[in-house]
Amino acid sequence: MSPPPAIKVPLWNLANLVTMSRIVLVPVFVLALFTRGGTDPEWRVTAAVIFGVASLTDRLDGDLARRRGLITKFGTIADPIADKALIGAALLGLSLLGELPWWITVLIAVREIVVTALRFWVLRYGVIPASRGGKVKAFAQAVAIELFVLPLPLAVHPARWAAMGIAVLLTVITGVDYVMRAIRLRASGRRALVVP
Questions:
Q1: Has this prediction a pTM greater than 0.85?
Q2: Of residues 88, 64, 65, the one with CA closest to residue 142
Q3: Beta carbons of 85 and 19 less than 8 angstroms apart
Q4: Is 155 helix (H, G, I), strand (E, B) or coil?
Q5: For residue 186, what pLDDT band results from cuts at 50, 70 and 90?
Q6: 66-93 pLDDT, tens per residue?
Q7: Which residues contact residue 45 at a Cβ distance below 8 angstroms, ignoring those fewer than 6 apart?
Q8: Fold (topology level) of 14-194
């Protein structure tokens, strides 16, 4: 008895469309953030809403893909690109406006570049799944950025700096964890290739 034929998942499915909507929202968010010099409260609220909606789609597309069997190669590549584009654009925009120190933007950007390079480095030996810490890190970054984008009164600024501090700490910790897991996977993969 032959196995049932594999079901071909269409490229333009709901999960991938949600991912693409996040990519489309990135320039819209940047435009709203910089309108009127980035100081107009109404435009800052608009930018915060756009960022919030785009951030929510990050969870939605993955859930849809898994629940409805809509996982595609395009989706697995486009999803992290969309995430990095949104977070990167927000951090870059806030630094250009002088509201966020450049070292934070550079640190987070370097971490993401290193993790992406490591993914390719260990691809032959396996895939390191997203950890719970990585998901918490992404959530913490989104919350911190949202607090910076919103035109909040000075009294609330310590809270947003605390949120950004937590996000930066988690960025470093999860980055180091990913490096260690990549090294272990590569080492075990090499042994498996050598030992019969």
A1: no
A2: 88
A3: no
A4: helix
A5: confident
A6: 676 656 666 667 777 888 899 999 999 9
A7: 150, 151
A8: Four Helix Bundle (Hemerythrin (Met), subunit A) (1.20.120)
